[in-house]
């Protein structure tokens, strides 16, 4: 069954500037929290290598009031392999369509928008956004919007038991005025977190390759052509996504090498906890953890950081006269 988001998406962003990775977000009508994408694979030629923002051509308020979809089953962090992702031309003199497809915890998911408003985002735009975010954070801090727990009583004017009493009363007020659904959601997140911590500390776990029921049959990686290996990789990633497991592929691994790593190393020897599948927690793996080139680059960056820190410390020790 396919989950179609056509009538729900107001705006969003697709970023394929990192090789074999598609990240982004989708703002859904009627929901404050955006749907995030962390997919493995590339877009088609019309979107590959680009970061593109898009918006529904008709403002949400001007569209017919559609029946609100039940999204209680939706995983708000979407993982899995990409399918068809492209801007499709409608022909001479006509607009185009944004067609997105991926395979996630929710199975096949599609988004098809006719004549979307498109905007390419450059690296300079991204830097401007980061500067604006930092400035906004600085203003919030100056206005007292980011006070930490350590700043609650900087001069020690109140006894500890009185501060604790205030905190308790404030928590009771929050619980009284918050909608029941939000309180239940908070409790659900806490219980899911407690379950995850308990399983990590005390659970036995099972090899990832043992979670498929019925077992899946895939070709051995030896001797596969690159296209065949990538097709098998995406089938396996789609199956893993349904269990909340994803793989990030670094720039040094080809799809066939990523498939071989999954089949020969990760699935047989890495453990997972099937009890977590209902919580929407995602277990991430990355080829960079198995990549000698990535490890060497990290070591070089760390050594450079240590050298720079040593120079900064030496400068601090120097007298100004």
Write up what this structure looks like.
The protein is globular, with a radius of gyration of 24 Å. It has helices at residues 123-142, 160-177, 180-202, 226-241, 255-269, 292-317; strands at residues 2-4, 9-15, 21-28, 35-40, 51-55, 77-89, 96-104, 107-114, 117-120, 206-207, 245-248, 271-272, 283-286. The protein has 321 residues and is α+β, with helices and mostly antiparallel strands. Helix 4 crosses helix 5 (255-269). The termini are far apart. A hairpin with a 6-residue loop joins strand 3 and strand 4 (35-40). Helix content is 37%, strand content 23%. The strands form 3 sheets. Strands 1-8-7-6-4-3-2-5-9 form a 9-stranded mixed β-sheet, with helices on one face. 21% of the residues are buried. It is built from 6 helices and 13 strands. The chain has 3 domains: 2-123, no CATH class; 206-290, no CATH class; 294-321.
Question: Secondary-structure blueprint of this entry?
Answer:
Elements: E1 2-4, E2 9-15, E3 21-28, E4 35-40, E5 51-55, E6 77-89, E7 96-104, E8 107-114, E9 117-120, H1 123-142, H2 160-177, H3 180-202, E10 206-207, H4 226-241, E11 245-248, H5 255-269, E12 271-272, E13 283-286, H6 292-317
Parallel strand pairs: 1-8, 4-6, 11-13
Antiparallel strand pairs: 2-3, 2-5, 3-4, 5-9, 6-7, 7-8, 10-12
Helix pairs in contact: 4-5
């Amino acid at each position: 069954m396919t989950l179609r988001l056509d009538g729900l998406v107001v705006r969003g962003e697709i970023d394929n500037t990192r090789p074999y990775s598609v990240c982004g977000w989708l703002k859904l009508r009627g929901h404050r929290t955006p749907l995030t994408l962390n997919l493995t694979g590339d877009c088609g030629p019309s979107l590959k290598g680009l970061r593109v923002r898009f918006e529904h051509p008709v403002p949400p308020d001007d569209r017919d009031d559609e029946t609100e979809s039940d999204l209680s089953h939706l995983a708000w962090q979407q993982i899995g392999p990409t399918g068809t992702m492209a801007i499709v031309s409608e022909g001479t003199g006509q607009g185009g369509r944004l067609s997105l497809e991926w395979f996630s915890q929710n199975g096949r998911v599609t988004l098809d928008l006719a004549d979307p408003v498109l905007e390419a985002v450059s690296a300079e735009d991204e830097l401007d956004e980061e500067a604006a975010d930092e400035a906004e954070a600085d203003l919030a801090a100056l206005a007292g919007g980011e006070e930490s727990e350590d700043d609650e009583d900087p001069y020690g004017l109140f006894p500890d038991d009185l501060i604790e009493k205030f905190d308790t009363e404030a928590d009771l007020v929050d619980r009284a005025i918050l909608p029941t659904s939000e309180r239940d959601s908070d409790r659900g997140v806490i219980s899911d977190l407690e379950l995850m911590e308990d399983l990590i500390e005390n659970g036995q776990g099972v090899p990832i390759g043992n979670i498929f029921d019925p077992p899946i049959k895939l070709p051995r990686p030896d001797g596969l052509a690159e296209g065949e290996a990538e097709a098998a990789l995406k089938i396996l990633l789609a199956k893993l996504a349904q269990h909340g497991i994803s793989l990030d592929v670094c720039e040094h691994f080809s799809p066939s090498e990523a498939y071989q790593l999954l089949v020969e190393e990760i699935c047989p020897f890495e453990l997972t906890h099937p009890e977590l599948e209902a919580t929407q927690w995602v277990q991430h793996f990355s080829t960079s953890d198995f990549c000698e080139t990535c490890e060497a680059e990290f070591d070089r960056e760390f050594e450079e950081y240590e050298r720079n820190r040593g120079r900064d410390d030496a400068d601090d020790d120097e007298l100004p006269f």
